[in-house]
Amino acid sequence: MIVKQKKKIIITGAKGQLGASLCRFRWPESYFIYPLDHSQLDITDMDAIEKVLSALKPDCIVNTAVYGMGEGADTEKSFQTNSLALLSLASFCKKNQIPLIHFSTDYVFDGQQKSPYREQDSKNPLNVYGSSKYAGELIVQHIAPLHIILRTSWLYGSLGKNFMRWIWESSHMEKELTIINDQIGCPTNVLDVAETTIKMVCQQLEKPLAEGWGLYHLCG
What we know:
alpha/beta; 6 helices; Rossmann fold
């Protein structure tokens, strides 16, 4: 009897809202999920990336590590995590001919467009977070031939901090909520993102489509 070896998927940022959801979601039995949080792999450490990933020999890397979504985030840390770290991750994937799945954000746009944004629409980030994430996109696109970038927005779920959860919890404690009304977004269930990501990974690892690689919008 031939025993088929399981495909090993590394998920970075495994304790974040999206990373934790991907780790908990049910993957096919032929896949082994190896979660790495910041204490196990700091993606801004180039030497650690090479050492840790080379030892694990993954078939695919799913990067959910992120920094600086809130206002006032440290500019240097934002670009280190959301941009420069991708140089090492993408280079490792290219050298080992494995896919890199990376997540980006609607913050790469300025929000002025009246119609829904398409993948190819002009980018114009208005803050450090959006700028660092857009730079990360460009790095992945230029280095890793086998990549999927998923832009999403306003993630919510039962794990981690998010706007929907804050509204729900605050409504049970406060009689009146004061909320800004100058932002428009598309709330996206993190479980929908996890499910779709898993389907795309499995497709591209088992029966890869040449047109399957690239950048996609994935929102609620």
